[in-house]
């Protein structure tokens, strides 16, 4: 045995990320992930953005899956993902994802998956009634990334543990099959002011599509009145805004609103508090609503325009799928050879 450290991955840099088409996107998806998808196009030549429809059926079956898939595609495009620079495609159109996921199901350990907090949250008290797909969700996610040998993955903070698992799976595959450096250990890109956007009603819960209260989230499709109303009714406390970041401690709802303001206006939380510290929510909330409307209204308008032309969306998705398939095919051929499947 040699004492040399294992050879690291030496291939090109590539961005991969995805979103579930469980329904339209919300402000958390936008600030936590989509804004980064758009920005990364400047720094990376190779960005792949997927709509993960196979993940979308793990918790419950989706009656409008194809429509929701087009909605997410429209949101990607409207926010500024440029199909001339980046691939936009649908997970189920590239069977290599599930093929690699099967192999990863045989690499990952039960104990690793049992530790996933997202599974525990979603399964609740009755894990035995959850789908097997919900349990193995993270191995499919690892396959999504690694079937393209992606090196960088922009996501919100809630995906950190899944990304760590993807790294563990990549490392174990490389070790088990004596294929050091074959898969990269993908790096999560999480940092940023929008990494963790919380519910407007309860600052201890993340903003989520599955929250039964629509008042808890800003949807990318909300019109100006809906946004203004939701911000007006957002939970706060009777005290004025603090003047420093430390003053946000123990005030999660306030911290969330200030964080959203900072993220949409492009300032730091400290700068936002320098302007707003000492003022009341009667003044701050309308300013926040205006900032959100200024940022989101053009995107909502563009989503509506694009949704009126499903043929154009489908053409972009089809072309993206063909290109994604072409990238994944030689990687999967290597995987089959490394695993030792009959050819
Ligand atoms: P999904 O559809 O649940 O979320 C899509 C993205 O939005 C981020 N996000 C948030 N960010 C900040 N605050 C919030 N309240 C908030 N809610 C959601 C998520 O972190 C995510 O980045 N498992 C992934 C989908 C996926 C994937 C992948 C991602 C499947 N395969 C491969 C990256 C790479 C998910 O959570 O989707």
Please give a quick description of this structure:
This protein is mainly α and 343 residues long. It is 52% helix and 6% strand.
What do you see in this structure?
This protein is mainly alpha-helical and 343 residues long. It has 2 domains: 15-195 and 310-339, Rossmann fold; 214-305, Tyrosyl-Transfer RNA Synthetase. Helices cover 52% and strands 6% of the residues. The protein has 14 helices and 5 strands. The chain has helices at 27-43, 53-56, 65-79, 96-107, 110-114, 117-123, 132-135, 137-146, 160-176, 224-233, 252-265, 269-276, 281-307, 310-339, and strands at 15-19, 47-51, 86-90, 152-154, 187-189. It has a 3-stranded parallel beta sheet with strand order 1-2-3. Strands 4-5 form a two-stranded parallel ribbon. Strand 4, helix 9 (160-176) and strand 5 form a beta-alpha-beta unit. Helix 8 (137-146) packs across helix 9. The two termini are 31 Å apart. The mean pLDDT is 96.
Keyword list:
343 residues; mainly alpha; 6% strand; 2 domains; binds tryptophanyl-5'AMP; Rossmann fold; 14 helices; two-stranded parallel sheet; Tyrosyl-Transfer RNA Synthetase
Bound molecules: tryptophanyl-5'AMP
Strand order, sheet with most strands: 1-2-3
Number of strands: 5
User: How much β-strand is present in the residues?
Assistant: 5-15%
CATH class identity of the largest domain = Alpha Beta
By helix and strand content, what is the structural category? mainly alpha
Number of domains: 2
Percent helix: 40-55%
Helix count equals: 14
Low-pLDDT windows of residues: none
Main sheet: strands, sense, barrel: 3 strands, parallel
Mean pLDDT, to the nearest integer, reads 96
CATH superfamily caption of the largest domain = HUPs
CATH level 3 topology of the largest domain? Rossmann fold
Shape verdict: globular
Specify the CATH architecture of the largest domain. 3-Layer(aba) Sandwich
